[in-house]
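FIELD: query
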Amino acid sequence: MKTITKLIVIFCILTLVSIYFSIPDTIRMSKIINLQCATESVNRFLGQKSNWQKIWPGNIYDSSTDNIFSNGDTVQIVARLRNTIQVMVHHRGNSLPGSLIIIPLSSDSTKIEWRASMVSSMNPVMRIIRYRQARHINRMMIALIRQAKDFLEKKENLYGIPIEKISTKDTFLVATRGTYSSYPATADIYNLVGMLRKYITDQNANVTGNPIMNVNRLDKAKYELMVAVPTNKELPGEKGIFFRRMVPGNFISTQVKGGNFSINNAFSGLQLYMEDYKKTRLAIPFMSLVTDRVTEPDTSKWITRIYFPSL
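FIELD: result
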């Protein structure tokens, strides 16, 4: 009988020792993800409170309290700093401080590490309970940060437009310019397009693609419009019409549906992308008018492709 009692006591002691050695006084949790996107874009997006609703839609994120809710737990956004977002995780009466650390890896990749910690207890039963709670919180952190990864790696979520890298073939163009006291209207654009198409026909050549254009604001009351039309061969030019050759190159591009408001937003998105990824712009950006705006006056149906020449 004494032997059994001794064995029980030894077992209890060993169990307690194993609990204290296997569960540290401070339980640290961490989850790391790598994102295929520029660090600046992640910082800018996460730094704006209104964007968090987009990552966790529905009732998961409450913009009025700046809280994220997940499986009965609450993640409170304490502060948004550059490269760091301080958070507080509330779980069953416990408040765990933590932070999301944004770390640049290269020009087009970023690491986010979510760190949190929980103080365990000298009471062995509570120590085990706290350990199980920490595992639960760590699973919650993993789920939320994976959801963020799925969202942030899509360029259309960060810039409001789909963005792709494309290249062009050798292209012959005839072009012309016009100056206007206000932003060129559809009639202004297609007057020049019509003139170029007539010139191509008169030269026994063929139009080989959609017209392209660029508008440059010279000052408060003057806009310069350049329009070009692709053709199948080199032409000499005449009376304000000149030849241009678009050599094969790389472009950052997007296609947008809508009028000037949508097009301007797309231009802004591409410009941000160029800055975030440290892209060098080799020439002026331009638009390809996929939709004939004369035959389709409804601007909501216009399709325009935008090109930024880039390395």
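FIELD: remark
Residues 164-309 form a domain with the Multidrug-efflux Transporter 1 Regulator Bmrr; Chain A fold (CATH 3.20.80.10).
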